[in-house]
């Protein structure tokens, strides 16, 4: 399964951006989104080091709510194994 992670852009430098999610920072390529205007405070979906889609803050929050539910369910399953 492929998974894109919502991240908030902290800083841009050309086609690279420093992005953050849940306290983790990564350098992300904006190459695939050259047609978009992206800057600090924007949210993007990141897959294997590339931003693949710009998203709203509400979409990012909703995605993280779902990911948190999945992680909690996985933790519960491991505790019952």
What does this entry look like structurally?
The mean pLDDT is 94. A hairpin with a 2-residue loop joins β1 and β2. The chain starts with a strand and ends with a helix. The protein has one helix and five strands. The longest helix is centred in the last third of the chain and has 24 residues. The relative contact order is 0.20. The radius of gyration is 14 Å and the shape is elongated. It is α+β, with helices and mostly antiparallel strands. Strands 3-2-1-4-5 form a five-stranded antiparallel beta sheet, covered by helices on one side. Helices cover 30% and strands 40% of the residues.
Instruction: Count up the helices.
Output: 1
The overall pLDDT, averaged over residues, is: 94
Largest sheet: 5 strands, antiparallel
Strand content: 35-45%
| Proportion of residues in helical segments | 25-40%
User: How do the helices and strands follow one another from N- to C-terminus?
Assistant: EEEEEH
Whole-angstrom Rg: 14 Å
Task: Pick out its properties.
single chain; 81 residues; alpha+beta; 5-stranded antiparallel sheet; 1 helix
What is the fold's blueprint, element by element?
Elements (H helix, E strand, L loop, with lengths): L4 E9 L2 E6 L2 E6 L13 E5 L2 E6 L1 H24 L1
Antiparallel strand pairs: 1-2, 1-4, 2-3, 4-5
